[in-house]
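Please check this:
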Amino acid sequence: MLTDQNLPTCHPSPRTNSSINSPLKIGRKKKLSCRTTAKTPINDDVLDMPAEECHNASPAAPHPPTDTAEEAIWLWTQIKAEARRDAEAEPALASYLYSTILSHSSLDRSLSFHLGNKLCSSTLLSTLLYDLFLNTFSTDPELRAAASADLLAARYRDPACVSFSHCLLNYKGFLACQAHRVAHKLWTQSRRPLALALQSRISDVFAVDIHPAAKIGKGILFDHATGVVVGETAVIGNNVSILHHVTLGGTGKIGGDRHPKIGDGVLIGAGATILGNVNIGEGAKIGAGSVVLIDVPPRTTAVGNPARLVGGKEQPTKHEECPGESMDHTSFISGWSDYII
């Protein structure tokens, strides 16, 4: 197990210089904007709060600067401040927080250390994984930016996420996604045995099974994450929120491009199943438990088994908000069903 006393010296590999594959853009660009926007100014008072008050301030979480470079510095500063508060409030966690966060100089080093410890086994050593993760993150700014965007997504979309450090340490959906990004990078470098071994460990540890060839954007929230399955040729856009037990699968044993393409800003409810090479348009909403086998137009809602469009196939009801960010699961009910308990 890695400790802060025996961190290995890492030398970036020339094989990790290519940037992350950009996900496909699905659907036409309209009024809908599926980008994270700062609605609340940075609240410096949060930094001065006692630990217990800070945890209760989740709804008023501060927002980062708009500049990407400043955002990364701001985010890491927030994470370290939160870890210090937690260490003071709960001494039992002080050593853990020091070795995982406070002893590191950057988010990519902390994340690499944490993932190495989480995913190691008796034959896949934590030192080897730390070196692998750090080499990949440190040489690819796109991966670092994606990790920051995913942290922000969890903090602002999930009311149960009390802090950035809580997400970094405890959100297995976030950790599985970051580990997948490294596995995907390995896959594109033709280091496929290692990519597949990493996929297997991610599935074992986090109960999230994402094929290393699958392409995932940034600003992703895997909420709860247990049982999420993403197939080999699947593509997930930016600012997408996916709940537990969601399957993006194929329809048989035929190879080729056979998995769903998820547009920007999509929300997929718990237990939904989307099968085949179908397009889920930008800003669409898939209701919990739905089974989707055909394309879903942008900014529409599909619900049921088999899924139907709210408002009907000819003139489906369209929404203006970005459901992947608003996390609105139920506003369509009155237009879809008169079911009453």
